[in-house]
Amino acid sequence: MGEQETEPEGMNEIGMDKINLDIEIVKMTIMSLKSNTSCGSGGVPAELLKEGTEKLYDLLRQIF
Hints:
Strand content: under 5%
Helix content: 25-40%
Radius of gyration: 15 Å
Structural class: mainly alpha
Number of domains: 1
Shape: globular
Number of helices: 3
Order of helices and strands: HHH
Distance between the termini: 31 Å
Number of strands: 0
């Protein structure tokens, strides 16, 4: 009762392999986004991501 399912090591919650990203790669990728373009499916404009802090970059790194 109350047992949590654990995900296999190296896998995420949807069964795909996890990718370890360096925070600097995330930061460089965000900074390379073109400004004044359409938002992606998430609706977050590039300008907002570019104004982010190290905490935002770390959270994005953890998601992917």
